[in-house]
Design a protein that fits this description.
Low-confidence stretches: none
Number of strands: 0
Order of helices and strands: HHH
Number of helices: 3
Protein name: DUF2783 domain-containing protein
Organism: Hydrogenophaga electricum
Radius of gyration: 14 Å
Distance between the termini: 36 Å
């Protein structure tokens, strides 16, 4: 069964996500930021339900750091 194309966020949607993430990182604090981001990544990987696609996202996020 072919997979349907992934939905993408609009620029305002991406800005909303960015703002929510920034607030959550601030709320977690410097000592818990890494743990928070790992938990968030795992929750999103579960929601995505596609390990290969998640790996593609990891590689994209690592580019140009």
């Amino acid at each position: 069964m072919p997979s349907s194309p992934a939905a993408t966020l609009t620029v305002p949607g991406l800005e909303q996500v960015y703002d929510a993430l920034a607030r959550a990182i601030d709320q977690a604090g410097p000592d818990k930021t890494e743990l928070f981001l790992v938990k968030l990544a795992l929750l999103n990987a579960d929601a995505l339900a596609d390990p290969k696609r998640f790996d593609t996202h990891i590689q994209a996020a690592l580019r140009d750091l």
